[in-house]
TrEMBL record:
GO terms for molecular function: transferase activity. Its EC number is 2.5.1.103. It comes from Gluconobacter vitians. The gene is hpnD. It comes from the Bacteria. PANTHER family: BIFUNCTIONAL LYCOPENE CYCLASE/PHYTOENE SYNTHASE. InterPro entries: Isoprenoid_synthase_dom_sf, SQ_synth_HpnD-like, Squ/phyt_synthse, Squalene/phytoene_synthase_CS, Trans_IPPS_bact-type, Trans_IPPS_HH. This is Presqualene diphosphate synthase HpnD. Keywords: Transferase.
Amino acid sequence: MVFSRVRASSGLPCAQADLDHVERIVTASGTSFARGMRILPADRRQAMFAVYAFCRQVDDIADGDAGVADPMAALKDWHQRIDRLYEGVATDALDRILIVAIHRYQLQAKDFHDVIDGMAMDCGAPIVAPDEATLDLYCDRVASAVGRLSVCVFGDSSDNARRVAYHLGRALQLTNILRDIAEDADRGRLYLPSELLTRFDVPKDPHEALYAHGLDHVARILAERAKDHFRAAKAAMQMCDSRAMRPARMMAASYSPILSALEKRGWKTPDIAPKVSKPWRKLRTLAAYVK
C-alpha cells in the first residue's frame, strides 16, 4: 500500500487526505463524538473516526437520509464491501483507513456485519412493538456490536471488554429508546417490547401508546433493566485495562444522568424533554451512533 502523504508516526499509517476525509464525515454529522474521542491517542482516535464514519453511513441508509433508491440493496452492498476489506480491497478513503484499523486492532468482520444487520432491521416496515428477543437482538446489533469494535480500538479485546460492550451497549440503547419514544412515534416506530405492552394494556400503535396509562409502568421496567446493564458494565470495566476503558467510562457517565432525568420526569408526558444537568449534556459523546 503506497501513500503520497503519510500521517506522522503517532497516527495511523494512512494518507493525510484520507484521514482528513474521514474526519470531515465525523464533523459534518454535528455530533460531539469528535471532541469526546480527543482523549484517545492519535492512531486510536483516527480508527474510531473510521468506525464512526462507517456507522454513520449505514445509519443514514437505514434512516433514508443517504438518498439511495433501495436501502436494503445499499446495505447488502455494504456487507460485500466489508468482506472485500478483509481481502485487502479498498475503493475509497474510508475503506483504506478501515483496512488499517482492522489489521492494527484485530477488528472482527462479524461485528461490522452485525451493525449492518441492525440497520437493516430499521429498513422497510418500521419496528413496532417487537418481542423481547427481537428487541434484545436489535440492541446487540446497533449498539453492543459497535461497542465490540470500539473496545478493541480503545485497547482491550479481552472477554471482560466484550462484556463491557454487551452491557454498556444495551444500557445506552435502552436509554435512547426511553428518551425517544415520542420522536420514534413520529416515524411510526415503537421499540417497547410487546410482552410488556400487553401486560400493562398499552396499545401497540406508536401514537396511541404515547399517552396510555400503562406506558409509565412499561418504561420504568425498561429503565431498571438499563440500570442493571450499567451496573454490570461498570463491574466488567473494573476487570479491564483501566486506561483503555476511559472512553467507555465517559459514555456511561454521560448517559446515566439522562436515564435518571427520564425517571424523574416519568413517561406520562413523554414528549417533554427531561431536564439533564448541564455538565452532563456536553458529554453525550456517542449518542449519534448507538441509535
